[in-house]
Amino acid sequence: MRLLYKLSFVKMRKNIGRFLSLLFIVALGVGFFAGLRETTPDIEATLDNYYDEHNLMDFKIVSTMGLTEDDIASLEELKNIEKVVASYSVDTLIDGEAVRIHAIEEDINNVDLVEGNMPENNNECIADATKYKIGDTLTISKLSQEGILQNTTYKVVGLANSPMYLSRQMGIASIGTGELASFIYIPKENFNSEYYTEVYLTAKGSLKETAYEKGYEETTNLLLEELEELKPIRETKRYEEILEEATIEIRKIEDEANEKISIAEEELQEALEEINNGRTEIYNAKNEIITNENKLKEEEQNGLTKINNARLTWEESNKELKNTLASLGLTEETLETALNTVKSNITSIKEILNTLPTDDPKYAEYQKTLEELNNKKDNLQTLVTTSETLKNSKIEIDNSEKELEEQIKASQDKLNKAKEKLETQEQKIESAYEEYVAGENTLEEQKKELEAKINEAKSSLAKIEKPVWYLLDRTDNNGYSSIWDDAAKVDAIAGIFPIFFIIVVALMCFNTMNRMIEEERGEIGVLSSLGYGSFNIINGYLFYVFFATVIGVTIGLLIGYTLIPNIIYSIYNANYILPSLNINMKLLPFFIIILITLGLMSLIAIISCLKELKNVPATILRPATPKSGKKVLLEHIKFIWKRLSFTGKVTARNMFRYKKRIVMTVLGVVGSTALLLTGFGLRDSISGLADLQYGKINHYDALLVFQNSFKTIEEEWKSKLKEDNITEYLPIYQASFTFEAKDLTHDVYLIALENNTELNNFITLNSKVNENFTFPEDGVIISEKMADLLNVKIGDFIKLRNSNNELVVLPVSEIVENYTLHYVYMNKETYEKYFEKELEYNMIMTNLNEETSHEDFAEKWIDSGLVSTINFTEDNILVFDNMVKGLNLIIVLIIGASCMLAFIVLYNLTTINIAERIREISTLKVLGFYDKEVSSYVYRETLFLTIIGILIGLGAGIFLHMYVINVAETDNILFLHSIKWYSYIFSFLIIIFFTILVQIITNQKLKKINMVESLKSVE
User: Fold this and answer.
1) What does pLDDT average to over the chain?
2) Whole-number Å distance between alpha carbons of 493 and 683
3) CA distances from 105 to 13, 186, 740 (A)
4) Residue-wise over 445-468: b if at least 16 C-beta within 10 A, else e?
5) Residue 1015 above 60 pLDDT?
6) Dihedral sign (CA 184, 188, 192, 194)
């Protein structure tokens, strides 16, 4: 036996190319098979470990009206509950981007701290490791729920990843542009809210189960059933609590309002009393003024009468004086002069009398004259006195009149001032009264408004919607689901490609071992002649096989287990934030693969050996009888055969002479070509979906999801749209429904609209049945993939259920082209007919202008409070492209492996071909053929067989591609079932390239053939 083992090592060393070829074929087949098959389990195990280490929740409950301590207590009483953690979160704007802030929890959804430390103060936080750095200060500019946080500025003290955010597309936000950009975690004490925003749950026993597996689903479903039973109970209870709280609040407001109204009425009454008192005082004051005015007038009249009487008396006296003076020929002006003249004359006469004796006759005359002059003087003096008296009387009369006027004026001024003061007081009273009336009117209006508000509040109690519990599980997390969907696609591909790969590898191994044993026929004969039994001889070859297989499988498994999963996992890191991949080198599968591969290889070796050992040693020692030449079919086609050259005819005969070699060569090339074409076809089937779905079918730019339903577009909304120069918009109703198909529940989006003529501006529906498509008046339009799953056609009925599990049966009128998700379209009349209620819209499709900023547009609408979120088609394309990009890289890996297989297969077949025909080639060399002619003689046949294999392989690739697409296609994506023309060209050229490359490499062997040794090898 030792000799046989030594011979095996000699064979390895002597024909190292063949040994390495066999080893690499095994390594490639096993490595590719094991690598692809183990990628998904490794990813699953890595993620499951990541989820378990960080206590990822099983369920999340959010409510439209928050969650209370009573809700928490009810959840804790459930039979299958493990943990109940009430928590908080809020969407915020930081540096213009939407960031979700979570409360740090110790028992659930723990962060994966990458750098730094946990917060110690309320103004510290842990931030997204992919976006921030330690020391950053984050300032919140806006909250989706005002007042919920105590602080608005936080310092980053730690960087972390979170199992809640695996995908780099973190989801939607209720603030900003509607796209969640990042996350941070803060101490729970920072939140200031009367109720919890969410509750996280874990199911009893779920930690022991593996995520994504059926066991995990079954375990969590036990809790889900309890939650679904509790859900309506707590919703009703919370509804009753809210009604009671609202009723108490209304009563409180009503009591406070009535109290305020009573106070206001008392104040108004006091004001009215003051006004009335003021009016009474004004009335009395007016009467007093009137009395004083009358008294003043009377006094004025009396004074004027006295003055007038005095003036009349004066005038009469003055008139008498003037008449008297006139009779004397005097005036008031000459009266004094006349008096002085008389006095002077009296003096003169007295002087004369003093000089005359009394007895002078003239004395008596002068005495008489003197008496007359004295009388005249007395009269004149009386007149002067009267004149002076009259003058003084006139002055007194004038002074009295002036004094009277002054007194009257002073009294009148006093009265005027009193009037002015009274008018001022009256104006104040009137103003006060106006204020009183206004206050009374305001009070009445406030009473009416308050009454209306209270009545509205009371009536709104009946309109309060029942709180809704949303039961969310891990699959509602975008990253959790999408990473598994991507891994499942790899698993689907791994279920097909490696098997086909292994078939090709097995054929090549069979061909290699079979040729090796045929080539060593003489050696087997010698060993048999020397007394070695068949078992020992076979055992020698089994050792060769064992050595090549174990090394090949080991290399293949080591590379396959480590390289391929890491390559695929690193591809996913472009779209996900993932932990380091845990490579599980399971020993049992390792040994099973070795045993299976060793068994297959041993079986091939045993079959090939037994084929030779069934003959006696003498026969085995002789070379196998060459296959006799026969006419080939081509020889019967005279017009072609006659035109062939000598080498062409030889090539044709040799091809059909060695049928096994033809079959193996063609099969090897067919397999490699089919794998290549399938790889390229997969790329074609996936890469074109985004352009078709979001270019040809859904070509709207944005979908505005409104907070509340509406019947018509308000003018205010039209103005907002007009501000952005948007004129194309269409209101629609869209809701999520479910349908049952193939024992599974599938989601479908139902879209109802009134103006279906404008739908083409946003969505183009292309019928898969009717070329002249029109929107049906009755019945619904369904997408192609949905029709395939339900196996329905036009005229059949479909059953849909809404979120309340209410059933609706709809007739199918059209089936349209669609590639992602499932859709049902209908017009307004159809909706109202089958749902028996009026259509109310909840979304608006829009087409934006090129200059419209998506960020500004989204922020404006979300900040308005009208819109909850905005879905941009551009974002959908980005998400889809990221998914396709990852799949394309995996397909590139498959194409690369297929190219390696093609090279090894062609190299193996070519070397076997040369080895089989070495004596024939030596004969050609002896006959004088040049190296180029020898190469042409050998390779022309290989090239021709390769072309035949390529052509057959392209056909086989079409069927393999269809099979792979049908298996890999998910329930909500319809892959393209066509292959681009250039993929055929690429597949053809790649195989031709490797064929030529192999010929260049093996051509050196042809040149180095020892003709003498080869021709005498028979001896």
Assistant:
1) 79
2) 13
3) 65, 9, 38
4) ebeeebeebeeeeeeeeeeeeebe
5) no
6) positive
Provide long-range contacts, Cβ within 8 A and 24+ apart, for 314-322.
314/390, 314/393, 314/394, 314/397, 317/386, 317/389, 317/390, 317/393, 318/390, 318/394, 321/383, 321/386, 321/387, 321/390
Rg (CA), the chain: 59
Q: Tell whether the model's pLDDT for residue 440 goes beyond 60.
A: yes
CA pair distance 994, 672, nearest whole angstrom: 11
Separation CA 814–CA 794 (nearest Å): 6
Write down the pLDDT at residue 1013: 52
Q: What is the pLDDT of residues 760-803, one digit of tens each?
A: 888 888 887 676 678 888 889 999 888 988 889 888 999 998 86
- Please report the DSSP string for 66-115 in residue order: -B-HHHHHHHHT-TTEEEEEEE-EEEEEETTEEEEEEE--SSSS--EEEE
Angle made by CA atoms 552, 553, 558, in degrees to the nearest 5: 105
Assigned CATH class of 252-463: mainly alpha
Report the distance separating Cα 638 and Cα 633, nearest Å: 10
- Which residues 6+ apart lie within 8 Å of 629 measured at CB? 653, 657
CA distance 251 to 1004: 102
Rounded distance, CA 150 to CA 206, Å?
36
Beta pairing class for 124-128 and 153-161: parallel
Q: Kindly tell me if the per-residue pLDDT of 631 is higher than 70.
A: no
* Nearest C-alpha neighbor of 672 from the set 996, 906, 984, 943: 906
The phi-psi region of residue 511 (left if phi > 0; otherwise alpha if psi is between -120 and 50; otherwise beta) is alpha
Question: What are the two backbone dihedrals, phi and then psi, of residue 352, each rounded to the nearest 5 degrees?
Answer: -70, -45
d(CA 549, CA 555): 10
Q: Can you tell me the distance from the alpha carbon of 729 to that of 843, in angstroms, rounded to the nearest whole number?
A: 10
What is residue 799's three-state secondary structure? strand
Q: Tell me the pLDDT tens digit for each residue of 231-290.
A: 988 888 888 888 888 888 878 877 877 888 888 878 778 877 887 887 787 778 778 778
Q: Tell me how far CA of residue 456 lies from CA of 59, 158, 643, 775, in angstroms.
A: 38, 50, 102, 43
pLDDT top residue among 323 and 763: 763
| Domain locations in the chain as residue ranges | 1-51+487-625, 52-231, 252-463, 658-698+873-1019, 702-847
Quickly count: other Cβ atoms within 10 Å of residue 716's Cβ: 10
Number of CB atoms found within 10 A of residue 111's CB: 25
- Give me the sign of the Cα torsion angle 627, 630, 633, 634: positive
pLDDT band, very low/low/confident/very high, at 520 (cuts 50, 70, 90):
low
Average pLDDT over residues 420-448: 79
Residue 603 near residue 510 (C-beta atoms within 8 A): no
The CA-CA-CA angle for residues 448, 452, 457, to 5°, reads 150
